[in-house]
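Support request from a user on the community tier.

User writes: "When I paste my structure tokens into the form, the page sometimes reloads and wipes my input. The last time it worked, I copied everything first. Here is what I submitted, just in case something in the input itself triggers the reload:"
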């Protein structure tokens, strides 16, 4: 059966890191398996004026928990320097005792968080930056010597230690809108895919494509939103590893805490 994660926007009520830490501790005690944070810098004012940094919050959560898998879902490399990101991820993996998963994605500009800061907006250019950046971050997280001279990033004769605790390195998942082939092909090169904006039929086709690209799903984790229309048993039948309970920016803190305290569906 799939593991159960909380997919949380650290905005509004949960822009306070202490509240996320408290929620994470409650989740761990109620048999949830993971906590994954949205990674944004701004939102539309009517949606959220208060926004916290996902990596700082996850550091606090890592120090206050012992079992939950933690991660970002997802970080757009287009507004991150790969070398700084790799350092943050490796440090969080050590701090958490080897519980960190790095989620990467193309990013969106629906709230202007790219265009307002002069970042790349063109989707094709962002895709090229993501492809190169993900590869570079993975190389830096390997702990091996890296020489990279690409169109967007350089890393000349460097080696990052500590590399994190997980072997062979911190796992990387890629966000993919189910049914779109290029994001699935990108995700298949790493350790997982977070299928978003997906119907059950799209999810099934996407998983079949991922399995085809990889020659099976061994060592690969697929995550979907719990509200995607599939039951836990159907997810299990498709080989889905994670069911994500989504906490939207507008969600009331008290309501979320009640749901989390009740535990994931089917937990004893």
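"...and here is what came back when it finally went through:"
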């Amino acid at each position: 059966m799939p593991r159960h994660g909380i997919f949380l926007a650290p905005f509004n009520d949960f822009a306070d890191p202490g509240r996320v830490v408290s929620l994470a501790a409650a989740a761990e005690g109620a048999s949830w398996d993971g906590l994954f944070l949205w990674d944004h810098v701004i939102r539309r004012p009517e949606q959220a004026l208060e926004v916290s940094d996902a990596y700082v919050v996850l550091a606090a959560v890592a120090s206050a928990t012992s079992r939950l898998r933690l991660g970002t879902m997802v970080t757009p490399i287009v507004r991150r320097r790969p070398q700084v990101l790799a350092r943050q991820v490796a440090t969080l993996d050590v701090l958490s005792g080897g519980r960190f998963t790095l989620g990467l994605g193309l990013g969106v500009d629906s709230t202007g968080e790219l265009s307002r800061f002069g970042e790349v907006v063109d989707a094709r250019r962002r895709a090229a930056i993501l492809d190169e950046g993900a590869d570079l971050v993975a190389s830096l997280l390997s702990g091996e010597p890296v020489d990279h001279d690409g169109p967007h990033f350089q890393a000349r004769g460097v080696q990052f230690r500590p590399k994190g605790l997980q072997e062979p390195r911190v796992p990387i998942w890629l966000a993919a809108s189910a049914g779109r082939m290029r994001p699935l092909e990108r995700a298949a090169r790493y350790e997982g895919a977070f299928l978003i904006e997906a119907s059950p039929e799209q999810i099934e086709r996407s998983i079949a494509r991922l399995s085809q690209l990889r020659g099976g799903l061994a060592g690969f984790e697929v995550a979907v939103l719990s509200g995607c229309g599939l039951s836990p048993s159907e997810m299990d039948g498709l080989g889905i590893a994670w069911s994500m309970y989504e906490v939207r920016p507008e969600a009331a803190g008290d309501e979320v805490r009640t749901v989390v305290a009740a535990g994931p569906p089917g937990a004893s």
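Agent notes: The reload is a front-end session timeout and is unrelated to the input. The domain at 3-171+246-261 is CATH 3.20.20.30 (TIM Barrel). The longest strand covers residues 69-76. Escalated to web team.
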